[in-house]
Amino acid sequence: MDDPFRIVGKAVDARNTYGLPLAVLAELTHRCPLQCGYCSNPIQLEQASREMTTEQWCSAMTQMADLGVLQIHFSGGEPTVRKDLEQLVQHASDVGLYSNLITSGVMMTRDRMFRLADAGLSHVQVSIQGATGQMSDLIGGFKNALPKKHDTATWTLEAGLALTVNAVVHRQNLPELPQIIEKAVEWGAARLEVANVQYYGWALKNRQALMPTFAQLEDTTNIVNEARARLKGILEIDYVIPDYYAARPKQCMGGWGRQFFNISPSGHVLPCHAAETITELRFDSLKERTLEWIWHNSDAMNCFRGTDWMPEPCKSCAFKEIDFGGCRCQAYALAKDASATDPACAKSPLHEAIFRTAMAESIASEDDFIYRNFANARADS
Ligand code: SF4
Ligand code: SF4
User: Fold this and answer.
1) Which of 84, 106, 135, 172 might form a disulfide with 148, Cβ 3.0–4.6 angstroms?
2) How confident is the model over 292-296, as a mean pLDDT?
3) Residues with CB under 6 A from ligand 1
4) Where exactly are the structural domains of the chain?
């Protein structure tokens, strides 16, 4: 077996440096007609009344372009619930940002897709929860989503836009992965993202209902590798394995506060989409500060930048400028300490325990979800 701690290639000297932010995930709203139990939104969903206005989002995009940002990903919740989406896409184009729409696809119309294309949208990512109507409805908690998603995919191509299909996979929908891959081909996608659930926020609450078995993980890897070879030149497949079964952590967000940031519906600037799960951090808002000030000066942005903050074993590890110690949100979720080594790493003292947890939960008989919705968010507070 390969040594997971063998260094391949040259490490980037990223100690305490950070560059221009290249891409921004703009979470326009937490409203969404679907209720996926693995949603990456925080448990405490933002009410519509707290969302930034059209003018505030446009100002944020102008500031992004001034700062050097190249891409904006319009996301949510479901971004198409915002009636001003066309205006926002138009403003992104006007200030020179490449724009991508990440959508469940269940609220789109053909006319709207063409209006978005006219406003300058370049790319659409449509999520898929299962390959059959039954699985799709069960996972998303929404009836008859699949035909609507297919329509959105069709209109994306008709409008001349690039299409990616996003599949978040877990124990319950993995048996349908081969058909999900075929759906992506049938819908005409150029890319399919197969991402195992990351366990924080809603997914952490539903971990017992989602955790795949080790055998499923091995099957998934084989299915993805076979499809990649068979569909070369037709469909590109990106694949993210589940952290709990990994030996080394992922390089989360390319390093905390290095190249990416996320804006929450109410305007908080976050180093990643799950950062608000670290309840001890305070995030600055675009309603009070400029983006440039926040990017350079925010305590939350600076606290895990570079490598000086790292404890052992990361501090003296040859990988520290490659993976930056893994995911801070996962460290907080599992070690109750956001500065700990990500327990996904085999060098973490907690690694064995989380591997055992994964194995135990993967064979649990618990299949019911706590659906992600405002009622369950209120029940949690
Ligand atoms: S993961 Fe599901 S519930 Fe969450 S925003 Fe996406 S479609 Fe909506
Ligand atoms: S998480 Fe820390 S200890 Fe593990 S490989 Fe990365 S830098 Fe090394």
Assistant:
1) 106
2) 95
3) 32, 34-36, 39, 41, 76-78, 104, 127, 372
4) 19-380
pLDDT higher at 22 or 96: 96
pLDDT of amino acid 14: 41
How far apart are alpha carbons 368 and 139 in whole angstroms? 10
Establish whether residue 258 lines the binding site of ligand 2, counting it when its CB lies within 6 angstroms of any ligand atom: no
Q: Using omega within 30 degrees of 0 as the cis cutoff, is the peptide bond preceding 267 cis? A: no
Classify residue 144 by burial, with Cβ atoms within 10 Å: 0-12, 13-18, 19+. exposed
Q: What is the pLDDT of residues 216-226, one digit of tens each?
A: 999 999 999 99
Size of the chain in residues: 381
CATH topology of domain 19-380: TIM Barrel (3.20.20)
Q: Going by C-beta distance under 8 Å and a sequence separation of 6 or more, which residues neighbour residue 321?
A: 11, 12, 13, 14, 15, 307
CA–CA distance, 173 with 171 (Å, rounded to integer): 6
Residue 13: the pLDDT is: 44
